[in-house]
Amino acid sequence: MVIFTPSGKRGRFPVGTPVLTAARQLGVDLDSVCGGRGICSKCQVTPQFGEFPKHGVTVAAEALSEWNAVEARYDRIRGLKEGRRLGCQARIEGDVVIDVPPESQVHRQVVRKEADAREIVMDPATRLLLVEVQQPDMHEPRGDLERLAEALKVQWGVESVTAPLSVLARLQTALRKGEWQVTVALWKGDEGPAKVLDLWPGFHEGRIYGLAIDLGSTTIAAHLTDLRNGTVKASAGAMNPQIRFGEDLMSRVSYAMMNPGGDREMTKAVRAAIDGLAKSLAEQVGIGARDILEVVFVCNPVMHHLLLGIDPVELGQAPFALATSGAMGLEARDLSLSEINDAAQVYVLPCIAGHVGADAAAVALSERPDQSHDLVLTVDVGTNAEILLGNTSRVLACSSPTGPAFEGAQISSGQRAAPGAIERVEIDPATKEPRFKVIGCDLWSDDPAFVEAVKGTGVTGICGSGIIEVVAEMRLSGLLDAGGLIGSAEQTGTARAEAQGRTNSYLLWDGTAQGGPRISVTQGDIRAIQLAKSALYAGARLLMDEIGVDKVDRVTLAGAFGAHISPKHAMVLGMIPDVPLDHVRSAGNAAGTGARIALCSVAARREVEGLVSRITKVETAIEPRFQEHFVAANAIPHATDPFPNLLG
Ligand code: FES
After folding, report:
1. DSSP string over 418-448
2. Cβ atoms within 10 A of the Cβ of 643, count?
3. Vertex 49, ends 48 and 51: CA angle to 5°?
4. What is the rounded end-to-end Cα distance, in angstroms, of the chain?
5. InterPro entries under this entry (predicted)?
6. Other CB atoms closer than 10 Å to residue 104's CB: what's the count?
């Protein structure tokens, strides 16, 4: 009896069967690149000896064959860890329990670092395989590619295979240099022929990489990932260069409408930025960008069209028709990406609808609201908020035009999250005196050492999480009424409330003595935040109406910004519906995580495609109730909806 752990799979095999063969027959996840030639060491296992009452077997020391010459040679040259055997060389001689360590499993799980996050189960589309190809002779008229295809069929069960011209051009040299052994990077989808993306003479020990890209309207974030084990080797972000054509999505659509060829200019700009990111990430890790063999994109519909070179003009007007909402499988050369391997396979996640893009689909893949018994509201806050509401019964999605205020734009002292930006704020309800923290300094501003500690950067402005906290704290301390009006110095009893024409502002920090700015919250800032938060709340409320509930069980805040929002302040402001504060969690950059999951797993790509087809899209732009909810949500926290959890 042969028992594999941790899978528990078991079976009987004739004496002399290699462990790798037994594993394959039982469907045990045991890796191999060299196909059992004793070269790659990916098939390492740890046999267990002694009594195993749980499995009902006793394993004797001679249950596996002794080292053969290949295994002994491998150990001599490369060294095998104590207790390890090469599964392709060790043969079964009796009852045995064989443990497959995580690094020998193809479908190993990669646990994400964030708390209670889902695991990524590796199921890569591209794998390295060593193949031994028959030499040509005068009686064998087939070409080298046909003999490679035959070898892949016999040795790896690959039914049909194609190779791009760039690979074909190097095939003959590689085969002869490798003495008729080549390592191929083979991409295999669900259907159609497999593709040889790259090849190397003999056994190639190098790694292959993929890029998971979250293409946002403001920033592009890319994660260079090892395709063998899902490890992120480096991450980098860059500004989306399309900003020069328009700050937000609709202004970019307008640019495309009003300037012939404008869409092509934006397409060119974003592709160049992606090339630049790929190059710098490869340099950072010390690899050639040609070793990047797969790319996965998540993005909103306008970014999606502009990336693909499709005019986004239809997305600017009802009924917001997408050229395609389906997932896309392309090659790097289709997108003119010139830094990475030109045969690299590109996968673009499906869009949910004309306003709810592949980024929301990626959040759904990462968070799987459809698997939750609780009704979960998931909000990805950006210039547009992508909102998902659902549980095991159904999932709804919408997007809401929050504008850039939550990112610090349109705010008088607003700035991006960077050292010197105010990110945490408290206001004493009695004295109305503020204290705050800036990014890059651990001290609160009322600490005597604060000014000295921030000497390098100074206090430069307020970032998104800071503006939410300061507005919420102003409301809590009575500086602001429920309608969002800032009180005068007489009304509030503090000289920090300063008259500015017919309205008032609140002075948070006067840095003029240190040569810095005066940082105030103006009535205009409050209005901008009210508009943004009302749009967000109205979107959530619309989905709640659609399901027929007036409360949700949990709230998940996604996105780089969502990770920094204080749940209490978000609720005081009325950005999110009332829930117990400990039922609000941050999911970090869930869209980026969704992209990584899809990069590492073919099964996850099918999963998100199925999931998106089951999500119901709710269109905020044409729904009259959206306006009603928007107006009622203008009050802080809300004109009518109760917030009992804020009273506790
Ligand atoms: Fe490559 Fe065993 S399969 S060494």
Report:
1. -TTEEEEEEE-TTT--EEEEETT--S-TTST
2. 14
3. 115
4. 62
5. 2Fe-2S_ferredoxin-like_sf, 2Fe-2S_ferredoxin-type, Beta-grasp_dom_sf, Corrinoid_activation_enz, Raco-like_middle, Raco-like_middle_sf, RACo_C, RACo_linker
6. 21
How remote is the CA of residue 89 from the centroid of ligand 1, in Å? 8
Find, among 344, 352, 339, the residue nearest to 304 by Cα: 352
Measuring CA to CA, which residue among 584, 577, 579 is closest to residue 563?
584
Report the predicted TM-score, pTM, of the whole model to 2 decimal places: 0.88
Give the SS3 label for residue 347.
strand
| Segment (H or E) for 523 | helix 523-547
Q: What is the pLDDT, as a whole number, of residue 446?
A: 95
- Residue 249 corresponds to which tokens in the numbers above? 């999505």
The encoded tokens of residue 240 equal 């989306």
Write out the two tokens for 581: 């504060």
**Best substitution site from 78, 85, 88 to test ligand 1's pocket, by max atoms within 8 Å of Cβ?**
88
| Backbone angles phi and psi of 574, in degrees to 5 | 80, 30
Pick the atom of ligand 1 nearest to 34's CA: 1
Structure confidence by residue, pLDDT tens digits, 524-579: 999 999 999 999 999 999 999 999 999 999 999 987 667 788 889 999 999 999 99
Q: What share of the chain is helix, strand, coil (3-state, %, to 5)?
A: 35, 25, 40
Of all residues in the chain, the percent with pLDDT exceeding 70 is: 98
Give yes or no for residue 88 CB within 6 A of ligand 1: yes
Q: Distance (Å, rounded) from C-alpha 599 to C-alpha 593?
A: 10
- CATH numbers and ranges of domains, the chain: 2-104 (3.10.20.30), 120-201 (3.10.20.880), 213-348 (3.30.420.480), 363-404+529-640 (3.30.420), 413-521 (no CATH)
Cβ 32 under 6 angstroms from ligand 1:
yes
CA distance 11 to 57: 13
CA 237 to chain centre: 13
Strand 50-52 versus strand 376-380 pairing type: unpaired
Q: Which residue from 555, 562, 558 is spatially nearest to 577, judged by alpha carbons?
A: 555
Q: Where are the beta strands (DSSP E) in 89-188?
A: 96-99, 109-111, 119-121, 126-132, 161-162, 181-187
Distance CA 267, CA 481 (A): 46
| pLDDT confidence bin for 116, thresholds 50/70/90 | very low
